[in-house]
Amino acid sequence: MNLIRVAASPQAMLNGVAVSPKGRVFSSFPRWTPVPSPSVAEATPDGGFLAYPGNSWNEWQPGMPFENAIVNAHSVFADRFNKLWVIDDATPRVCPPVDGASKLIKIDLDSNQVERVYRFSLDFLPPGSVLGHMRVDERYAYVTESHHDAAIIVVDLGTGAVRKVLANHPLTMADPKATAMIQGREFRARNGGVPQVHVDLLELSADGKWLYFAALLGPMLRRVPTAALQDAALSDEQVAKTVEDVIAVPPLAGLARDAKDNLYICSFTQDAILRLKPGAGMLETLITDPRISFPNEGCVGPDGCFYFPGSQIHRSARFGDGTSEVQLPFEVMKIPVGEKRD
Fold first, then answer.
1. In this predicted model, what pLDDT tens digit does every residue of 261-285 receive, in sequence order?
2. Could you tell me which residues come within 8 angstroms of residue 30 by beta carbon, excluding any fewer than 6 positions away?
3. Where residue 191 falls among pLDDT bands split at 50, 70, 90?
4. Whole-model pTM above 0.70?
5. What CATH number labels 4-336?
6. Domain locations along the chain
């Protein structure tokens, strides 16, 4: 299978890719290294990146106002209505977190203007909270909070009301026994600890009836009916009874689907992209390649290709002995999969 470079960042780390229905490619650039970051950028025809949507949204620096700026872009997602969604978790690794700055940003790709900002208060997201990834349907957004409460956040896109579901529940919390080996070395933070990232990755089924979710280190991909998540009258234990185990998975940093509900899993311990077909009892390996170094959040584009970044997170100074082993540049790649996203 061909591994095709789409765009490259000479120095700034990127960790997510979103492709619009019209084929525009966007990436999130978290402030996880000291290198200046554009926060979010659009790939250009010449294989570079241009900051997006521009102005104050891409210009934040410590001490600056955060209301109309992206402090730390954790993930991006493009929906079928030609909107780009950005998660600002407000927790850069190169400076202290900015309390009260976490938000979900909706950008209209026709006008290239921010359409709405959903802000999370400190009462709702206390210090230590980290937003992860998101998916949206016509009425709701589903966002993971992977550190403080191990929760799935449900956002009413009309009213802006927010709720946490399955907070600190065994189904959403990281398995304390789970570990990851990357190229013969255990994945550990600089302080020696194994990263405990709770529910992090998620994806909606094509019909919108199921939300798939998993913790960073797995070991299980699960799904929950979106009807249960939307029902505020249900307790967490009632919601938990509707959750189904889908399949055991390796450590993963990206989860996406196509219009036929094939799921694509970014396996960072294998430098590989895996696929789970509906009803299949096993994962298939589409490609494994050394260039696929810690593949992160990706998506299926309108050209029938799966797009993903090689984020090289495990090579950064935050892990191992504190020495950066990153091999520049950071790349966005794609592989043909023969299916499109709806």
1. 999 999 999 999 999 999 999 999 9
2. 13, 15, 37, 72, 73, 74, 92, 93
3. confident
4. yes
5. 2.120.10.30
6. 4-336
